[in-house]
Amino acid sequence: MMKSYEAIYNHGIIEWVNAPPPVQHFRMVIVVEQPESTVPSTVRKPRVPPPELKGSVKWLGDPFEPAISEEEWEASLDRTARQIAGDPEAFK
Predict the structure, then answer these.
(1) Nearest-CA neighbor of 21 among 1, 8, 5, 2?
(2) Stated pTM of the model
(3) Least CB-packed of 1, 22, 81, 90 within 10 Å?
(4) What are the CA-CA distances from residue 55 to residues 26, 47, 59, 60, 73 (Å)?
(5) What is the pLDDT of residues 26-80, one digit of tens each?
């Protein structure tokens, strides 16, 4: 089983931050953490659409108006409920 121990490597010498591992001989896996100043920023710039797309979006109706009537909505819900219940006629 692997355990983690924090240490600082300083000119060829390992300085343990906490207690060292309780063994004399062991194999090490070393992960080097870079200083914050050299880590590139992952902040993204906002995406801007190309100027040739300006004015190319057109609404094909009122976006706040429902696409189907209330009666069609109720019929769709009823058909879905019958399909869930296993009515073979609801799938036609």
Answers:
(1) 5
(2) 0.33
(3) 1
(4) 67, 17, 11, 14, 33
(5) 888 888 877 665 555 666 677 777 788 777 777 677 767 777 888 998 999 999 9
